[in-house]
Amino acid sequence: MFGLDTTFLIFVALATVSAGAVAYGLMFNNISNEAKAAKRLDTVKKAETDRAVVKASRDRLAEAAKRRKSVQDSLKDLDERQKDRDRNIRKPPLRIQLRQAGMSVTIERFYVYSAITGVVVTILAFIAGAPLIALPGALVAGAIGLPRWFVSFRRGRRVKAFLNEFP
What we know:
Blueprint: H1 6-90, H2 94-100, H3 107-127, H4 135-164
Helix pairs in contact: 2-4, 3-4
């Protein structure tokens, strides 16, 4: 062929291939390191965007949880106020009960009358021959139970009379 020996051509081809193999062998470490570095760089870039996505997601979840807690607190507050209102309607404070019963007695005077009633009931129980262990019970019943029962009885009677006025 062009005056070249085939053996020489084969030798040149093999020398070229072996030089390429040696170069690849020596450079393989650098090539793989570059590939690993590129992969790490991509991972870091993804992690940064993932962190941003995760942070945004976490912020959204925190905001939703904050809103949910705020709504729960508002509902709980409304429920407590409603319960207080219902409790005051069913059994209003003593001052209002006295007014609804038509009694023009101050709270302080009511407590004085309650104490007097408790002492009188205790003396009556003692005279009636109640055992000494029952006398503190009679004092409590006479001082707390009887006056409040009387107020609620008068209040109920007055409310019924008021409701009977309606057709």
